[in-house]
Structures are given as C-alpha cells and as structure tokens.
Write a structure and sequence with these properties.
Blueprint: E1 11-18, E2 24-31, H1 34-43, E3 47-54, H2 64-79, H3 84-94, H4 98-112, H5 117-122, H6 130-142, H7 145-202, H8 208-239, H9 243-257, H10 262-283, H11 288-298, H12 302-316, H13 321-328, H14 333-345, H15 348-403
Antiparallel strand pairs: 1-2, 1-3
C-alpha cells in the first residue's frame, strides 16, 4: 500500500513492516531520504520498518475498465441491502487487481473510522474522478446510495464502451501506418543511399522523380535527430503537467479535431460521453453549476474540458446552458437544441441521456463507415508511395539499359 500522507516528491522507497496489530504491511512511498521515510511510517503506526530505495518505479495503473467492473459489483451489493462497510470488505476480498485492492482497503479503513464515503474516495483522485466523488456524495446526501451507484456503474460502462469503439476503429489503421512508415524510413535511410552511390559512379543524369527521392533521402539522413525529437515531443507532453506540456496537448487536440475523418469521429465520441456524464450527475441531484466541473474532467479531452469550464462560468453568471453551448461552437446543433428544450421543460437530464444515446448510434455509423473506407484507402496510398519510390530508383537503370 502507498503510505497515506506521503508527500509525492523526492525519491521512491519500497517499505515493509507491521501495523499496530502485528499484521504485515508493505508498499511504496516518496520522501526526501530514507530516514524521513522511516519517520513517516512510524508516525502512521508501522513497526519493524525496512526501507529500500527504488531507482525505477512504475506504479500499477488502474484501468477504467477495472473501476467500472468494481463499481458494478459494489452497486449490486448495495442494491441487495449489504451495508457500505461490509460491501467494501467483500470487495477487497473478491477483487484480484492488487493496486485497486490496496486503494479500497484504505477507503475501507477510513470509512470504518467515521470518514464520509465521498471524502474517503476523494483522497485518491488518480483512481476516483470528480464524477465518481460527486455522485457518491449526492447518493449519501439523498440516502439513495444504492441507486446512485447503479447509475454510476452504468455511466462508467457507457464511457468505457465509447473508448473501446474508438480504440477498435483506430487500432488497425494506426498499426498499418506505423509499419508502413517504418518501411518507408528504412528504404529512404538505408536502401536509397546505396542506389545513390551506384548512380554517382555511373555519372549519368537522373530523372526528376529519382532526384526527388534522393533529395528526400538526403534530407532525412541529415535531419533524423530533429525528426526523432519531434516524435518524442508527444510522449514528453503526455508525461508532464507543466504549462508548456498543457499548451502542446491543447494545440494537438485542436489539430486532430480539424482532420476530415478523424475529427468528426472524435467529436461524436466526446460529446456522447459529455452528454451521458452530465445526464447522470443531474439525475443524481447534483446542481448544474456543480455538475459541469466533473463533466469537464470526464471529457478526457483538453479542448472540451476547457469549453465545459467556460460553460460552467457562464452558467454561474446566469446564462442558460444551451445559450452558452451555442457560443462555444463546439457542440452539434442537435445537442444544443435538446438542451434548450430540456431547460424549458425541466427534463434536461432525460434529454441529455437521449442525446447521448443518439450520439452513440451516430458513432456506430461513423465507425462502420470509417472501417470500410480506411482499409482500401490505406492499401492504395501506401502501396502507391512504396511503388513510386521503387520505380524512381530503378528508372535510371532501365534508361541505361536502353542506351547500352
């Protein structure tokens, strides 16, 4: 388990010891040095402490699929009348994901000591999103935690299904493009220079197509460090949270949304997830001005996260949701109109849920169309590129054969 109260800065240490009841405990924490790590653990009641510096530590990630499955099991227990503490204990015994078990054991300990469930969940923001915490808080306040957990599990499963559809639609073309790009780079950096040496020894003039390919090869050979740095830039931006990385992620997200085929697909997926999440929060009784914050984080997209926070500010200032959505120009007209109708009739949560279902249906059509379009398009384009390079390389040899 990760020690509560660890500071999140400094070196990473793996520790083991025993708690106040003599049970073995272990985990990782971050501290400036080993002595401070031992002192931290002793303050938390850990005895017989052994600490070892970890030079490379990659924390076990908890996937959204695992969280959705756990929430479904939790909701089923609560619907069956199992008390919260007992349900948490049963989850800890039945789950197999070690990282999630450690988190839920900490939540169980906090709740058993009198901490509110939503406060205990909020101590783990990397696992439980603002959406999760707000819905649990609403369920506790209204005394309908079992119903709210059921809605939450459905929302998490719907969001995970949307992500899976996008991944399945893009996995094949991305894999083919990566392999084809690797082949093109291999040809340009290692095969074309061999042909270039042969052409220079012959001293014959080269066709313009061959000159273009040779120039492209020379440029790639000379600038490959720059190209490699540009390819590493997205990885750096994904791993850092500073202002520069955030600006790059925002720019890249805006750029992808402008793509002719990929952009509409991503927009449909994000807006569907946005509608389903906001609908779930409003159905749970969360006020609109508060629900927009967790919805922004659930978008998992910097452009729509920023746009949703703008909606929140305008709603707080007295603007209607539909009017603010129309001003952002990021939402389809159908969604904006449904929100306007929902505000007029007082059924905004229901109409947002309906809008999310319509967007999911549209997403299915777009994914099917994209799959049928991309496969032949990729084969034609990549086959044409590789074929053009090979023809350009052999064309001088054919010309010399005619001369001799």
């Amino acid at each position: 388990m990760k020690a509560p109260g660890s500071q999140g800065t400094g070196a990473t240490f793996r520790w083991s010891g025993r708690d106040s009841q003599g049970r073995p405990q272990s985990g990782t924490l971050q501290a400036l040095h080993a002595d401070l790590a031992r002192a931290q653990l002793r303050r938390q009641g850990i005895q017989k402490v052994q600490v070892q510096r970890v030079w490379w530590h990659q924390p076990d990630g908890i996937k959204s699929k695992d969280l959705a499955t756990m929430t479904r099991q939790w909701a089923a227990m609560l619907k069956a009348g199992v008390p919260v503490v007992q349900a948490l204990a049963m989850l800890c015994q039945s789950m197999t994901h070690k990282s999630l078990v450690r988190v839920m054991q900490t939540v169980l300990s906090d709740v058993a000591s009198g901490v509110a469930l939503h406060d205990a969940l909020a101590q783990h923001p990397r696992v439980f999103s603002s959406l999760f915490v707000h819905m649990v808080q609403a369920g506790e306040s209204a005394g309908i935690l079992d119903e709210i957990m059921e809605r939450l599990s459905q929302t998490l499963e719907k969001n995970e299904a949307l992500r899976s559809k996008i991944r399945s639609a893009l996995m094949y073309p991305i894999a083919v493009l990566l392999v084809a790009t690797g082949i093109l780079v291999l040809i340009l950096m290692w095969v074309v220079p061999v042909f270039e040496d042969v052409f220079q020894s012959l001293g014959a003039p080269l066709p313009w197509s061959t000159q273009v390919v040779v120039s492209l090869s020379d440029s790639l050979v000379q600038t490959w460090p720059v190209v490699l740095a540009m390819l590493a830039l997205p990885i750096w931006a994904a791993q850092h949270t500073g202002p520069a990385a955030s600006r790059f992620r925002l720019w890249a997200a805006q750029w992808f949304l402008r793509w002719p085929v990929l952009g509409p697909l991503m927009t449909t997926s994000i807006v569907a997830r946005w509608s389903q999440t906001l609908s779930a929060l409003l159905s749970a009784g969360v006020p609109l001005s508060e629900a927009l914050g967790p919805t922004a984080q659930a978008c998992d997209h910097p452009v729509y996260e920023r746009a949703t926070f703008q909606l929140q500010r305008r709603v707080v200032q007295g603007s209607s949701l539909s009017e603010a959505m129309g001003q952002t120009e990021r939402f389809p007209a159908m969604i904006v109109q449904l929100c306007a109708t929902g505000e007029e009739t007082g059924a905004l949560d229901a109409l947002l849920g309906r809008a999310g279902s319509l967007m999911v249906t549209e997403l299915d059509d777009q994914v099917n169309g994209l799959t049928s379009l991309l496969e032949p398009l990729i084969i034609v384009v990549l086959g044409g590129l590789i074929g053009a390079i090979l023809v350009a390389m052999y064309l001088p040899i054919f010309t010399l054969g005619k001369v001799f």
